[in-house]
Each structure stands twice: as structure tokens, then as C-alpha cells.
Amino acid sequence: EMYAAEGGQAVANRLVSDASVVAVVGPTCSSACRAAGPIFDSEGYTMISSSCTAADLTAADTGFASFNRTTPNDDAQGVEAAKFLYDTLGVRTIATIHDGSPYGEGLVAVVTREFEALGGEVVASGAVNVGDTDFRNLLDEVADSSPELIYFGGFPAEAARLAEQRADAGLADVLFMGADGIQTPEFVSLAGSAGEGTLASSPVAPGSEAYAAFLAKYEETYNTAPTAAFHAYSYDATNMLLDAIEAVGEIDANGDLVIDRGALMAFIRSFGADEPVEGLSGMLSCTGMGECATGGIGFFKVVDGAFVTFATEPIADMAP
Fold first, then answer.
1. Which backbone phi and psi does 306 adopt, to 5 degrees?
2. Listed residue (34, 308, 159) closest to 11, CA to CA
3. How many C-alpha atoms does 267 have within 13 Å on its Cβ side?
4. In 10 A of CB 214, how many CB atoms?
5. In DSSP terms, which residues pair with 302 in a beta bridge?
6. pLDDT band at residue 206, thresholds of 50, 70 and 90?
7. In sequence order, what are the beta bridge partners of 309?
């Protein structure tokens, strides 16, 4: 559900029918944010997503007044991924596969555009459906074009199957790379040994004493490290809303807290615009179109069954 438009629509309808809901940290996925947008817009609600990264959610002709995000968008990630492929890895030919989601398709489009602009060549491109499990025919077609790397836009289940089944197509030595959608423990456990050497980009907090303290507190509280890339962005989104409530909220004659939705929306839209505000994920400064992140993109690699920060090494040593 968390990846689906239906989920975003259902949750938005439920939330706007509840007058006690002030604003929303979420939704999780671009398709859900896109489905929730018109509903939140019509009722004057504000959402701040920590993980909806599709570029069109803030674009002039397709964006939503209600939508804001604390994570860098897919354009930023796709641009950096293409540079990483071409400059850091020294790759010149890639095959792209996406899962048909706004997230996956958008990422592949940006990576394709930027990689070709740098001088690289996309030698094969294909798509899968979420829920499919047999990708052998597609991988056989990919193998015919002999790419140096397969770039996948999508989520853990399909990514793990692609990583596994590429060996059957003679692609075991071909690098496999995705983005924040696969940079999770779920991918690693599903892919098993076939996931070794997998690369992924992800929005990454710049690392600070505050962030280190947050991670320690999180692990102490929940007995586990955060399970996805977006914890710092969620933390920042929540604090932005708390700041907004403090700024625009008023106590009425009955002693109740009253929050004007329009004032809250305006406050969030211009949050940090004059002077960036330091968050866990980096400096926050909203553009007026819902882009609030100024943070960077990091690169990760699966080593011994876990994603670790990528260390530059010669391409010859990088086969999984």
C-alpha cells in the first residue's frame, strides 16, 4: 500500500474529514503524494513528505500548493547518479530498467538524460511491473547489448529478483545499481548473496554532532538503527510543523488552540527562505514551490550483507 496511489488517496480523504488533524508528515511514496495532492489542496491542508522525491510534485504546472518535502528530489539524485556512473565508476554503457512507478520512471529518465549528456550510452532499456517475479526474458535482452552496469529505478522486491536472476542471463559480473528505493535492509535480505556489490544512491544527512546524537538516541529507544534513508528528513518535517504551529497558533476564549490552515501553509512555504534553518538533514530553506532540502546525495554499496558508504576503488575490483 505504501507505494500505491490508492493508499495515498484513501489516507488523504480520511485525514481531511478529521478537523483535529493540523497537517501531515508524509505520504511516503511519490504516487501516494500525487494522489493525495488534489485532496489536500482542495481542503487547504499542508503535507511535508520526507521521501516523495518525484520532480513533478513541485513543478510549476504539475505541483500542489499543499505539497512540501525535506528530501532532495529525483532530479538532484538522477544528476548525481549519472555523474557517479560516468566519473567515479568510469562506466560508459548502461542498461536501464524501471518499475513503471512515477518514482522509478522519473529517476531512469533523469539518469538517461544526464548520462547521455556526459557522453555515456544507454544500450538497453526496459520496464517491469511491480509484483512480477520472472525477469529472465528481459535480462536476456539486456545481455544481448552487453552493458557494463544495470541501473534500476524501483523498490526492493523487484530489485532483489533482478539482482538474483541476472546471473542466469550471464550478467553476474555486470554491476547493479539503484537509488534510495532499494537502499534498505529489505533489499539486502531478499537478494542474499546476489545483492553483494549492489550500488545505490540516497539522500544523505551531512553528518553532524546533532545527527550522531539522534542516531544514538534512536538506537537506544528502538533497539535498532533506522531502517530507511529518510529518518532525518522525517524528523526535520515534524519540527517544521511544530515551529509553524507555534508561530501561527492562537489560544481562543475557551482556551483551545486554534490553527489557521492558510497561515500554516504560508509559514511552511517560506520556511527558512530568508535565512536557512539548520536541521538534522542539513540546512532547510523552502523555495515557495515546496522544495525545502539543501542536503546532498550519498553513494552506498552492499558489502558483507549490508549497505555501507561507498569508497572509491578501481572499477576492476568492483564486480560483485
1. -155, 145
2. 34
3. 20
4. 17
5. 307
6. low
7. 300
